[in-house]
Design brief:
The relative contact order is 0.23. By secondary structure, this protein is an alpha+beta fold. It has a 7-stranded mixed sheet. It has helices at about 5-10, 15-20, 25-30, 40-45, 50-55, 60-70, and strands at about 35-40, 75, 85-90, 95-105, 105-110, 110-120, 125-130.
């Protein structure tokens, strides 16, 4: 299964799948890749202020939603072990960079912690994160 199918098959990603659908990104992330997705769980989306997700999925806010979602995707397959005891700035599909840090057995992407790493998909890998990344 590709990244989108893998996410759609996991109830913990229902908000992410809804957002990807609203942003018309399911085809892109279901494509050849490879991609690494730092995927916010439903709990991560729940940390946002009340009404934020509902507002973002409105057609009028599609550009903002796309920018947020593309901040969670990088080209290539990057396994968590690549970041053991190091820090790397990686360009996202949205054009911004995210800082990935591996320290003391855990991996962080900006302020988000990877709660589950290396979820394999046919076109890349998913790392579950506990916080939604926001563009600068």
């Amino acid at each position: 299964m590709n990244i989108v199918e893998t996410a759609a098959g996991n109830p913990a990603f229902s908000t992410l799948v809804t957002a990807l659908t609203a942003a018309n990104l399911t085809s892109a992330l279901g494509g050849t890749g490879p991609f690494t997705v730092f995927a916010p769980s439903n709990d991560a989306f729940a940390k946002l202020p009340a009404g934020t997700v509902e507002d973002l999925v409105l057609p009028a806010n599609k550009d903002k939603l796309v920018a947020i979602l593309k901040l969670h995707v990088v080209s290539g397959t990057h396994m968590a072990s690549e970041f053991t005891d190091k820090t790397a700035d990686i360009a996202t599909l949205g054009g911004e960079k995210v800082t990935v840090t591996g320290k003391d057995g855990s991996v962080h992407v900006g302020a988000a912690k990877v709660s589950s790493a290396d979820v394999a998909a046919s076109n890349g890998v998913i790392h579950v994160i506990d916080t939604v990344l926001m563009p600068a």
